Amino acid sequence: MPFKIPSFAAFATLLLAGPATMAQVTSAPVCVHDESVKERFVPVELLTGNPMTESRELVFGPVDRVYPFVDELPDGSLGKGEAALKGPISWEGQEVYERKVPRAHERFALTPDRTAIGRVYDQRFGNASNEGKFPVGAWSQGQVRRYSTTYFSPRGPRQETTTLEIEKLSCTYEGVPGALQYGWKTSGGLSYGYIYAPGKGLVHVMTRTGGR
Q1: What is the Cα–Cα distance from 33 to 29, expressed in whole angstroms?
Q2: pLDDT tens, residue by residue, 78-87
Q3: 108 CB-near residues (< 8 Å, 6+ apart)
Q4: Closest by CA position to 132, among listed 151, 144, 149
Q5: pTM to 2 decimal places
Q6: Measured between alpha carbons, how far is 84 from 39 in angstroms, rounded to an integer?
Q7: How many Å apart are CA 93 and CA 69, to the nearest integer?
Q8: Given 34, 103, 148, 200, which residue has the most CB atoms within 10 angstroms?
């Protein structure tokens, strides 16, 4: 019996038949934007994952929790990370949360204008003042706020501008409505995106420029 060469279609079918023959590409979860939400009060509870309330007070409620998150790199590859948040505690006259990530131990407090929460300490460089890292209080869709930030390191103080930009004031992340997606940049060249979801806290980190 003569040998028959399989058709291209049959060959392609074999290639696509199972995971052993072709790696499956996993895309990053998307936070589906609710464009009807133009203004919003962003509570501290969105950061901590504590139960959301109707209060418009910025209160550091008790938390001791680990947050698993999707870690998205600039090339689109995905990994997994964890951040731990605990507090509040009193530190140098401020009410702060302590946060631990794989590369650092940090402390976070409200900015003086109470529009954001940011680092006041990071073991990688030292203390900081007036850093905007997580938006709180009244924000609008697309709003941008800039913070004149000082980082204090053993080599001396360094002035930078940290910027918060609301990308999706309200969105649904993996079935959870009311999530928030925003961008964070520094004048030193770092650029990240973050997604926080009600009841979950940090769920997604997008490294865009620098930081790795």
Answers
A1: 12
A2: 999 999 999 9
A3: 96, 97, 98, 99, 117, 118, 119, 120, 133, 134
A4: 149
A5: 0.86
A6: 29
A7: 31
A8: 200
